[in-house]
């Protein structure tokens, strides 16, 4: 009776606050509709699942779905919209700020384990919903109507053009994924490349792709931590990697980038950022869910902290570009691919992993679309270079 009374009170409260396209079905046959045309159905298999529903942060709702405490049916974008509305209603305006980021000690072992957890699900799994080149980072929709494949190639070309990559220059790609950027840099721009990753499965496939392309003499794919790289490089790129670095490690990360960069070189950092000025967690429980199930030990700095730390590390910022709308569209494309290939994806992962990634991809699309998180490309060079050695305008980026 206790839980039934709490549930009745919760239902009345939700109905009073908003009309949701939601149907709630209980284990005892009871049903509650929150609109005349419910598009999302939440099924509660037993009273023990009610605490997740009655305290509907995104962490609680996500955990309940992943662990089978709640079953949810409907289009995934509508599921995310309903879940986010419930979380906002429950947590109020204060819930948008997720609290101070917890600082994690990022050792080589901790970082390698986190990377393996996220990226070593299986190459076949990622291949099913990424583009043909398996680019797992924000695409660049120059005109807004490109296909995902076109936009990913445009993103790579946009980066390589921004850093003014020239034939036979050396390029270090920190966090090279499955090798798409270094392959493009060698094939189209004639560069000599080193790509590093901590994922064994990425390393194996990227190395094979390099061999198949006949570029083993121009591209070296290494299973290596960025802290262990030595040498000097004309150009450095880091795409979708510094989210794993940690807030306290940012000074060492950018100092390492500076140490590896040639005196007349250019570097590009492309990464997700917090929209909280204090580099706090993403609100409504989203950070807790992602940290538990998707990106262990990930931390997002605000762009102001990125720029400040770069300057303190001896790097001058030359150009900053916000790509938030591009990542919203990228994640929507990934989520659509995921939904279109559910049967094949189920054949590569268990139900738990399937549910994690289903809500994660659609949730990211929602988060970027609603300014919960952002993403920036930051072009930089070593501080103190002569002013006449730098481009006069951005025109060269779009030639």
SSE inventory with pairings:
Layout: H1 2-17, E1 22-26, E2 31-33, E3 40-44, H2 50-54, H3 58-66, E4 71-73, H4 76-91, H5 108-119, H6 123-129, H7 148-162, E5 170-174, H8 180-189, E6 192-197, H9 200-212, E7 219-223, E8 233-239, H10 250-260, E9 261-274, H11 286-293, H12 303-312, E10 315-322, H13 324-340, H14 342-346, H15 351-369, E11 373-382
Parallel strand pairs: 1-3, 5-6, 5-8, 6-7, 8-9
Antiparallel strand pairs: 1-2, 3-4, 9-11, 10-11
Helix pairs in contact: 3-11, 4-15, 7-8, 10-12, 13-15
Keywords:
399 residues; alpha/beta; Nonspecific Lipid-transfer Protein, Chain A; Rossmann fold; seven-stranded mixed sheet; four-stranded mixed sheet; 43% helix
Query: What is the general shape?
Result: elongated
CATH fold topology of the largest domain: Rossmann fold
Largest sheet: 7 strands, mixed
Measured on Cα atoms, how large is the radius of gyration? Answer: 23 Å
Gap from first CA to last CA: 69 Å
User: Which structural class best describes the helix and strand composition?
Assistant: alpha/beta
When the domains are counted, the total is 2
CATH architecture of the largest domain: 3-Layer(aba) Sandwich
CATH superfamily of the largest domain: Vaccinia Virus protein VP39
CATH class of the largest domain: Alpha Beta
Overview of the molecule:
The structure is a single chain. This protein has helices spanning 2-17, 50-54, 58-66, 76-91, 108-119, 123-129, 148-162, 180-189, 200-212, 250-260, 286-293, 303-312, 324-340, 342-346, 351-369, and strands spanning 22-26, 31-33, 40-44, 71-73, 170-174, 192-197, 219-223, 233-239, 261-274, 315-322, 373-382. With 399 residues, the chain is an alpha/beta fold. The protein folds into 2 domains: 2-91, SCP2 sterol-binding domain (Nonspecific Lipid-transfer Protein, Chain A, 2-Layer Sandwich); 108-398, Vaccinia Virus protein VP39 (Rossmann fold). A 7-stranded mixed beta sheet has the order 7-6-5-8-9-11-10, with helices on both faces. α13 (324-340) runs antiparallel to α15 (351-369). The radius of gyration is 23 Å and the shape is elongated. The N and C termini lie far apart (69 Å). The mean pLDDT is 93.
């Amino acid at each position: 009776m206790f839980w039934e009374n709490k549930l009745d009170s919760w239902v009345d409260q939700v109905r009073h606050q908003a009309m949701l396209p939601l149907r709630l079905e209980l284990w005892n046959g009871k049903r509650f509709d929150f609109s005349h045309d419910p598009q999302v159905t939440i099924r509660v298999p037993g009273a023990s699942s009610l605490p997740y529903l009655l305290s509907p942060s995104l962490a609680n709702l996500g955990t309940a779905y992943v662990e089978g405490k709640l079953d949810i049916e409907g289009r995934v974008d509508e599921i995310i919209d309903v879940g986010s509305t419930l979380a906002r209603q429950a947590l109020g305006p204060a819930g948008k700020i997720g609290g101070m980021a917890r600082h994690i000690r990022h050792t080589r072992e901790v970082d390698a384990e986190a990377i393996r957890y996220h990226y070593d699900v299986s190459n076949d799994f990622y291949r099913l919903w990424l583009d043909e080149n398996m680019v797992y980072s924000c695409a660049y929709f120059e005109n807004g109507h490109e296909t995902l494949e076109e936009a990913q190639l445009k993103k790579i070309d946009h980066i390589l053009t921004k850093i003014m990559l020239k034939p036979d220059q050396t390029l270090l790609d920190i966090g090279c994924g499955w090798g798409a950027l270094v392959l493009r840099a060698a094939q189209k721009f004639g560069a000599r490349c080193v790509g590093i990753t901590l994922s064994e499965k990425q390393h194996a496939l990227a190395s094979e792709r390099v061999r198949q392309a006949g570029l083993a003499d121009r591209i070296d794919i290494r299973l290596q931590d960025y802290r262990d790289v030595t040498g000097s490089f004309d150009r450095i790129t880091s795409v979708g990697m510094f989210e794993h670095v940690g807030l306290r490690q940012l000074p060492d990360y950018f100092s390492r980038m500076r140490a590896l960069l040639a005196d007349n070189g250019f570097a590009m950092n492309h990464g997700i950022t917090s929209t909280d000025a204090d580099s706090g967690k993403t609100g409504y429980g989203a950070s807790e869910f992602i940290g538990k199930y998707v990106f262990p030990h990930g931390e997002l700095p605000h762009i102001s902290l990125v720029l400040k730390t770069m300057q303190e590390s001896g790097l001058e910022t030359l150009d900053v570009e916000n790509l938030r709308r591009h990542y919203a569209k990228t994640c929507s494309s990934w989520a659509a691919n995921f939904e279109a290939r559910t049967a094949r994806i189920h054949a590569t992962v268990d139900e738990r992993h399937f549910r994690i990634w289903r809500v994660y991809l659609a949730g990211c699309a929602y988060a970027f679309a609603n300014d919960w998180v952002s993403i920036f490309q930051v072009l930089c060079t070593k501080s103190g270079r002569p002013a006449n050695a730098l481009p006069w305008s951005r025109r060269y980026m779009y030639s």
